[in-house]
Specification:
single chain; alpha+beta; 2 domains; five-stranded antiparallel β-sheet; four-stranded mixed β-sheet; 28% strand; flat
Length: 257
Amino acid sequence: MCVWTTFSGTQGCIFGVLLYSVGASRKIQADALNPNDDFEALGRVCTIIDIEVNMTISGGRDNNDVTCEDKYTYSFMAGILGPYTSITETKSQPGRDGSCPVQTLHLETFEKGQVVDCWRIRDGKGDVAWWYRCGNKPHCYKIFNPEQDVKAQKSDGTSAMAAGAAAFGVGLVVMGICLLRFCCCDFRQPRPMSAVLLPRYQYAYQHPAQAPAQGVQMSVQQPGGVAVGVPQPGVPPGGVQPSVPPGGVAPGFITRV
């Protein structure tokens, strides 16, 4: 379990670093853009000639919390040049009673036949045109202010950086918790003790009633048949200890075998 948790935490950290790097790169690039230097303002010279609308609904059928979206794509003329296509503009609003109206939402910014302001990429700036949202690259005529593209790109970069930092933080916390559990719990578990082989003893016991008058004597026979006596209560100093026959066991003695 801890191994899988550590793996998930590592993946979260890696994903967080990658996402943060992408967001930082995007924000740095957006900071380097200058719409006023990159685009030439043409003024109110572009005319909307057509509007394409696509309706979408997000949310399950059993869920009343649905969102109705209209996606507008404008076709326009830049003076006598064109037609050109704009980027897709998305407008949305919550549905009612789990459904969306059959007709469009009519949330478009421009109307058909309307004359609007437009911008064109400056000569020699074609390399930066790819960083702007243009529906007609490489010409890059725009009916939306290019400053909006820079703001949107900065916002996306900041959001990606925040999400990457959050993912990295969560992954780091998960790994830290697992490491803490390993250090504090696993090392405190009892370890199996090595077996200790104790010498075997053969016991011979003489009942006190059968012992000599001078008392009961118990001894341990050492190698070579020599019995080392262990005085017991009732044995007077200098008492006589029973002898041990060779290879035998004397009553009242403990002999190791």
